[in-house]
Design brief:
single chain; about 475 residues; alpha/beta; eleven-stranded mixed β-sheet; 13 helices; disordered C terminus
């Protein structure tokens, strides 16, 4: 982590951007100066109570053999009546919940619901991929499919001759099956597609829940170990390598999900919000600052600003000048490059110690989750009619977190593409795919931010890289 830098020169192209810095100082000095700005964007409709996408069947539970290696605690009394229910109407994710005699065989990625009293052949086999980004076909193909098999009350009923495996281990806590695949190296997507959905699904059990991961990656589990430990008192099970048959009184396959980097309180049956989620995150990492305190000039303490620096795309071309400008208006500026941000355990504390987080649009801005309440996030929007997608990802989520939002939009005069693509080329005249579907953008960059090349792939609101698309990282 680099310390403070000073420079006596300031680039004219970035002058307008740094006009925001005195405003930031005022916000920190008097935290009630500006109202919170919220742009609410609901990307999915609430599923109806009963719809053709929801399948429900009652199950008569039977007790499995108890195994002496049962892991969680003493075996609970068997549930006499239960149900299997799957919801495929949610825009973000498909989910199934089940109770009763539930047996999970990891290696085959199969969940057996034994002796379903309302068994029907057409609903006897259900498949889903337990990752909360179901509209993106490309990434969903990277997620392992899990099969749910309903077993009829009588063997061989309706020609079904499937015999459920016997229990090897019996648990007395619920199971939650999810995937660590997908865009698992991108912090924005990890939070949006996995961690927030895990919180919505598993937090209500207060640690007494067993997590089972498909597409299991030890490095991913290690990186997010504090969050996983705060959700479950038990180690995450590598479902892919397990030849064991684990039996549970209930299970969730797939995760509840509402929107990008957010929670819709009206859809959370436990009343969870992004404020409660951030409290949970602060507790998981033992972060010390719950709220930004107003800074007085007489206190001698400077407000801290963490500047997220990118290296491969959307890079600040005048980093030293930006750092110097922040220092001159009264901030203690802390810079964070990719290596700094990737050390999540350490960087969570750094971000929490700061009053402001600023950077060019990208996954690193999701670290605003660690800011104390009433902190400020500043997004630098690259040139190229990108205001809507940038606000959707990192502007709209800010106010529900209890934070404040400011933005600076780079102009055509500030973009480095003026050198790469002169104004007479077709590329420089191309509008954003969000404005005119089907047009190709050769690139967007600026003196304060430069982005990689993107093109519309023909689906509403979805982009892929003009060059070889990364299957692990999007933003």
């Amino acid at each position: 982590m680099r310390g403070r830098h000073k420079s006596k020169k300031h680039g004219g192209g970035a002058a307008a951007l740094w006009l925001l810095l005195p405003l930031l100082v005022l916000i920190v000095l008097k935290t009630n100066l500006l109202p919170q700005v919220a742009h609410y964007s609901v990307v999915s409709s609430p599923p109806s109570a009963v719809s053709r996408d929801e399948m429900t069947g009652d199950v008569d539970a039977t007790e499995c053999e108890q195994d002496s290696s049962g892991r969680n605690s003493d075996v609970a009394a068997p549930i006499l009546r239960s149900k299997l229910s799957c919801n495929f109407s949610n825009h973000q994710s498909n989910t199934c919940t089940m109770e009763g005699d539930v047996r999970i065989h990891g290696k085959s990625a199969t969940v057996y619901v034994v002796k379903a009293s309302t068994y029907m052949p057409e609903n006897s086999t259900i498949k889903l991929r337990p990752y909360a980004r179901k509209w993106e076909d490309q990434v969903m193909q990277l997620v392992r499919e899990v099969t749910m098999r309903s077993i009829p009350p009588a063997a061989g009923a309706d020609g079904d001759d499937v015999t459920p495996p016997e229990c090897s281990v019996r648990h007395d806590v619920p199971a939650v099956v999810f995937s660590t695949g997908g865009y698992n190296r991108n912090f924005f997507h990890v939070m949006t597609d996995v961690i927030i959905p895990l919180y919505l699904t598993a937090r209500e059990y207060d640690g007494r829940v067993q997590l089972l991961a498909t597409d299991y990656e030890p490095k991913w589990i290690a990186k997010y170990k504090f969050i996983l430990a705060a959700l479950s008192a038990y180690p995450v099970i590598d479902m892919d390598s397990e030849d064991t048959v684990r039996c549970f009184p209930s299970a969730h396959v797939g995760l509840e999900s509402h929107k990008e980097l957010g929670i819709i309180p009206g859809l959370s049956h436990n009343g969870y919000t992004m404020v409660t989620f951030r409290e949970f995150i602060r507790s998981a990492y033992s972060l010390q600052r719950p709220r930004v305190a107003p800074v007085s000039r007489s206190s001698g303490r400077k407000p801290r600003l963490v500047l997220i620096l990118r290296r491969n795309s959307r890079q600040l071309k005048n980093e030293a000048e930006a750092i110097a400008a922040g220092t001159e208006v009264g901030f203690e500026v802390v810079t964070a490059g990719p290596d700094d941000v990737s050390d999540l355990e350490r960087f969570a504390g750094v971000a929490n110690s700061c009053d402001v987080l600023m950077g060019v649009h990208g996954a690193g801005l999701a670290n605003m989750l660690f800011l104390p309440d009433n902190g400020t996030m500043v997004q630098i929007i690259p040139w190229g009619e990108l205001k809507w997608p940038c606000r959707h990802s990192f502007g709209d989520p800010v106010a529900p977190m209890g934070l404040r939002y400011l933005e600076y939009e780079a102009t055509a005069e500030e973009t480095t593409l003026n050198k790469t693509y002169p104004g007479t080329t077709p590329c420089s005249r191309t509008r954003s795919p969000y404005a005119d579907r089907g047009l190709t953008r050769c690139g967007t960059s600026s003196s304060t931010a430069s982005t990689s090349s993107w093109t519309s792939n023909g689906s509403e609101g979805s982009w892929s890289n003009c060059t070889e698309p990364s299957r692990r990282s999007r933003k």
